[in-house]
Amino acid sequence: MADYPLPLMVPEDRVRVAKHLRDASAGSTENNIESRVLHCDGIRLWMAVSWQPLQDDCGNPLGFRASVRDITEKRRLREQLRLHNKHLEQLVQERTARVAELEKHRAKMQQLAALGELAAGVAHEINNPIAGIRNALLLMKRHLPRDIRHYDKFELIDREIDRISGITHHIYQLYRPSQQQPTRFSVRRTVDEVVSLSQPLARKLNVEVVFNLTGKKPCGELESDEVELLEGELKQVLLNLVHIAVQASRAGQTVEVILETRETYLVIDVVDQGQGIAPEHLDHIFDPFFSTKTEKVGQGLGLGLSVKRSLVETMTGSVRVESEINHGTRFTLSLPRPLQDE
């Protein structure tokens, strides 16, 4: 066989092996050159070849000698090791990213706790003078005739005092742990009540609010639509999210509240078809004092969503948001059905 051993090689390696044969004939030396051979039963095996030149006593070349080793098992183990290392690298990257995420979350929680403690102290100090201002305003209003100039400004002042009181109340909620105890109630009834409470605003803006129950399962002693949570907190969170969805919608659009009770937790989605949230704002909408409502003075201080997330986390739940510009926004609440005491 003139071209031996090339016919034994796999076709992809024949050119490279032929070059090595020429190099060996020219007097080169190599060790552990790997290539693949075809077995008689058709399978491919790996071999490692080493060669050295042969010379007579006068230094004239006589050819070369070669040794061939079967390294198929070694290659298999090497490939397994490579895949294992790749998997380990992926795990390390995932764990590193997770640790970085947790560290970022921890730093953020520390920052929010410090901010909340400071804000709660400020809110407490504000409440007393606000009460004095309101009492003085009521006394002035009671003893002044209605026909005096700017009498209508009393109502404006009173509304602004209410707004300041609302801000301080939100700040208290952001920091102060809930004093409620979990109670057993029908979450379906609660969502129905929230939809009813949202109707005045929805009618004013010509937006329809609908409620859909997509699935329900019992959970231990709880019926299929029952949960054991902080009902007041849940109602407050839901009403706020529905109001946000209604305000983000255009006339004639629909806001959908979707409830699903699963075996151990419940999921509530509030979905609108409104203008959506800009991608650069999505990571910040739950931050205290962040607001996209900057077009009108006094429209929002940016405490609503941060307070609502704080309330949800008090119940060991989570709130997520997905949004696309001009296609709407989806807020998703996930809460354990029986709130476990920590």
TrEMBL record:
* Keyword Nucleotide-binding (UniProt): yes
Entry GO MF terms: ATP binding; phosphorelay sensor kinase activity
- Give all residue intervals belonging to the Histidine kinase domain: 121-339
Q: Which SMART domains match?
A: HATPase_c, HisKA, PAC
State the source organism's domain of life. Answer: Bacteria
Q: Which Gene3D superfamilies match?
A: 1.10.287.130, Histidine kinase-like ATPase, C-terminal domain, PAS domain
| Keyword annotations of the record | ATP-binding, Coiled coil, Kinase, Nucleotide-binding, Phosphoprotein, Transferase, Two-component regulatory system
The family database entries (Pfam families) matched by this protein are listed as:
HATPase_c, HisKA
Q: Enzyme class, one word?
A: transferase
Catalyzed reactions: ATP + protein L-histidine = ADP + protein N-phospho-L-histidine
The PAC domain is annotated at 31-83
- What EC number(s) does its UniProt record assign? 2.7.13.3
Coiled-coil zones = 74-105
- PANTHER family assigned: PEROXIDE STRESS-ACTIVATED HISTIDINE KINASE MAK3, SENSOR HISTIDINE KINASE
For this protein, the record's NCBIfam families field holds: sensory_box (TIGR00229)
Q: What is this protein called?
A: histidine kinase
Record lineage: Bacteria, Pseudomonadati, Planctomycetota, Planctomycetia, Pirellulales
Q: Which gene encodes it?
A: kinD_2
